[in-house]
Amino acid sequence: MVTTLQAQARHARILVVDDEPSMRELLTICLRRAGHEVEAVEGGALALERLDARPFDLVITDLTMPGVDGLELLRRVIARPEPPLVIMITAFATTATAVEAMKLGAYDYLTKPFELDEIQVVVMRALERVDLGSENQRLRDELRGVWRLEGMVARSTAMQRVFELVRRVAPTRTNILIRGESGTGKELVARALHSLSDRVDGPFVAINCGAIPESLMESELFGHVKGAFTGAAGPRDGVFVAARGGTLFLDEIGDLSLPMQVKLLRALQERTIRPVGGDHEFPVDCRVVTATNRDLEAAIEAGEFRSDLYFRLDVVSVVLPPLRHRPEDVTPLVERFFERLNRELGRELRGITPEAMEWFLRHDYPGNVRELENLVERAVALEGSTMLTAANLPEHGTTHASPTPTAPFELPEDGLDLDQAVADLERHLISAALRRTRGVRKEAAKLLKITFRSLRYRLEKLGIQVASGSDGDG
Fold this sequence. Notes:
Elements: H1 2-8, E1 13-17, H2 21-33, E2 37-41, H3 44-53, E3 58-62, H4 70-78, E4 85-90, H5 95-104, E5 108-111, H6 116-144, E6 147-149, E7 152-154, H7 157-169, E8 176-179, H8 186-195, E9 204-208, H9 214-222, H10 239-242, E10 247-251, H11 258-270, E11 272-273, E12 282-283, E13 287-292, H12 296-301, H13 307-313, E14 316-319, H14 330-344, H15 354-362, H16 368-382, H17 418-436, H18 441-448, H19 452-462
Helix pairs in contact: 1-6, 3-4, 14-16, 17-18, 18-19
């Protein structure tokens, strides 16, 4: 019987969670013989860490464990945006716990001791459910014109191009620079690059270069030896070592000081690091993905960023447009956040009223996707009726009708959205320069007194389309 099931079942990625070593070993051997990829951990806390690091199709967990037990793990797993199915296993079965687990969303519930054939059957049926759900979701998305990528959803052509670029470059070792305003989802893209790469089994380590004091940055990146500085009571690995075999994500790379830029460049070129206070260099093996919300070309011109580091990091550039430039993405994002937060916050709202959706579509989102998610969470948490209404959304939000000053330094009586006004003015001037130069970008850059690289970045950031072959500049 097991042989037949092995032939029928597809290969899947399964996480086994049990505090008994013998049970972990038994399940691992059994499932690997069936052709599955299996990881086994001894508790719920470790399971959550592995789920943060990589996606799984199925979680098989014991019910009674110290710390984060099976029911708590189940609650946290099903609250995730794209949760795997969960099978509960226990030697202390009662009707009450079985019913509670199923109500919380467990796929099935098995009692120790069980036959190996039994677990194979349950796993096979669970994976059939996973495949059916994925296919149904794909067909629904296709009908609605929605695209998905590792936890992200979009409908706009601009984001479809981003998703396709990420899929193409993820399997390579190429350095990627992700560009976009704060809140556009740069870390989500970095995680997608990791999940779709051959380094998915390794760690994903992220740090924000703008949030770490300059005096600690070198130690944070490269580690230190005992006694390297006051307070260094023992050796400590940096993030380059922590990300060994995986992906290191350096967010807000534009905030890195010039001295640290030199040291980072050397680490990338030589693929070695020297801990602070150390005498020897050590090889490192991690893919480095960086992100910024700054105009690095302008920073180079101002002498604030090294051009050699820029060219090392920007082999492939992934530019995320702000949400206000892709309003067609608002509806699928609202629906996604509503579905997840309705579940996470324990609400049972039936849907979103047309008035509330209209509010979301009018809002201008200076904080981009992160702001949209916060607004949905606030509305879901405060809603007192059975539907999500506009009652708990801000009465006066920024809208697409935000005024732009007609002359420099002229401020409208009722104020304005500064970010939107600057973006609109920048778009207007760049478009005017392109019209005057008949679409020749190098000539337009000269008119605007910026570099060609800077103009190219601004065109991508603002979503301005220029006819191909119109440069006349190669």
